[in-house]
Write a structure and sequence with these properties.
It is found in: Cell membrane. By secondary structure, this protein is mainly alpha-helical. The chain has one domain (about 5-180, about 190-385): MFS general substrate transporter like domains (Growth Hormone, Chain: A), CATH 1.20.1250. It is built from 16 helices and no strands. The longest helix is centred in the N-terminal third of the chain and has 34 residues, at about 5-35.
């Protein structure tokens, strides 16, 4: 299959599910909180639903993708994102908002594993790493688009979600036409079914799992509360607040080059650089949230390092679970989300008790701990612990 035929619709679907349906919530949260009169703790609780439902759906998607192929899960992901954002746009109360969040969050879990499987089926082996990391960078395009939309729509968060839902419907139709079916008895089906779902006895799976969990915890506060953090300083206009989010997305596109850096410098060094950068972003924001240059610098570092790191985890996972690409993506992304569930729940609580500055420093320190966990240099060439 032609590289662009699979990668371009994949980028847009990840942009819709991750960027619009999931991570834009942090940008729109201040307006939602004011309209529905919800506290920081409830905000953190609702935010954790994105990650919690993601945990369930990524397990389901990994299993079903292995059994049935990628097409059905990709289309279901787009459908859930579309319905979830419609509910969020029309919500009369916090309960309907939570239902919309559950569906929108679930869409992201459904989307990731099948694209890894689709790439392993229809993209030549030498271009699979590049295809995976560029599809993964679709998150950044979605975040940038959500930030630009917020600049023009200001506090019209209901209209914003309605427009996002319309975009998602178009993207769903594109993927419906672009993703092939896995035909019974085909060579693709035989290749696809050889993957195993078990992680037992797989070398390298433990450090991969612990690293993913720790990174998830360390990034949760930034995704959910960074925009609220700089807003409470009173030093930013509406367009500057939205611009902060645009910076996260635009610099996140740089994360698409993670596959190239892994190939040139190795997985171990790439992981350490990414985790150190993402830890520093929370600490930089905590030091000077009222300074637009420092806050935008923090956003740039966070955006680029988050997408970069998820790309590194993606490559690491596929190398560890070398016979099953969907499992190689599913395990680290699942545990990243588990960490974000934990991190979101505690972030709202800690901010309520100690405030933003102390909380963001603590989350930055968790990110520093993550730098100590990762693939070993000796394992880079040997499937990063898989052999």
């Amino acid at each position: 299959m032609k590289f662009s035929r699979l990668v371009l619709p994949g980028v847009t679907m990840i942009a819709a599910t991750y960027g619009l349906a999931r991570f834009s919530f942090g940008l729109l949260l201040p307006g939602i909180k004011e309209s529905l009169d919800i506290s920081e703790f409830v905000s953190g609780l609702i935010s954790s639903l994105f990650y919690l439902t993601y945990c369930f759906t990524i397990i389901y998607s990994t299993v079903m993708t292995t059994r049935q192929g990628p097409r059905r899960m990709i289309l279901l992901a787009g459908l859930l994102a579309f319905i979830g954002m419609l509910l969020m746009a029309a919500t009369p109360n916090v309960w309907v908002l939570a239902l919309g969040v559950i569906l929108a969050g679930g869409s992201t879990g459904l989307a990731s594993p099948p694209y890894g499987a689709a790439i392993s089926l229809w993209i030549t082996e030498g271009r699979q790493g590049k295809a995976n990391t560029w599809i993964n960078s679709g998150t950044s395009f979605g975040i940038a688009l959500s930030g630009i939309g917020a600049i023009f729509l200001a506090d019209e968060w209901r209209l914003t979600y309605l427009i996002y839902a319309a975009f998602t419907l178009l993207i769903l139709i594109w993927n419906f036409r672009a993703i092939p079916k896995v035909r019974t008895g085909s060579r693709s089906e035989l290749r696809f079914e050889k993957g195993a779902l078990s992680i037992r006895g797989v070398k390298g799976s433990i450090p991969l799992s612990v690293a993913s969990l720790t990174l998830g915890i360390s990034t949760a506060a930034f995704w959910t509360f960074s925009r609220s953090f700089i807003e409470v300083t009173g030093n930013y206009s509406d367009w500057q607040l939205s611009g902060f989010w645009v910076v996260i997305g635009l610099f996140g596109v740089l994360g698409g080059f993670s596959g190239s850096l892994v190939e040139k410098r190795g997985l171990s060094l790439s992981y350490k650089l990414g985790s150190l950068a993402i830890a520093s972003s929370s600490i930089i924001l905590a030091v000077a949230p009222e300074n637009w240059f420092m806050s935008y610098l923090s956003a740039a570092i966070f955006g680029s390092s988050y997408i970069f790191l998820t790309g590194v985890l993606l490559v690491w996972g596929i190398r560890v679970f070398i016979t099953n690409a969907s499992l190689g993506i599913g395990i680290p992304f699942l545990l990243l989300a588990v960490g974000q569930v934990i991190g979101s729940l505690f972030a709202g609580l800690l901010i309520g008790i100690w405030g933003y500055v102390v909380s963001f420093i603590l989350y930055g320190l968790v990110g520093m701990v993550a730098t100590l966990i990762g693939p070993k240099k000796s394992r880079d060439a040997a499937a990063c612990g898989s052999g």
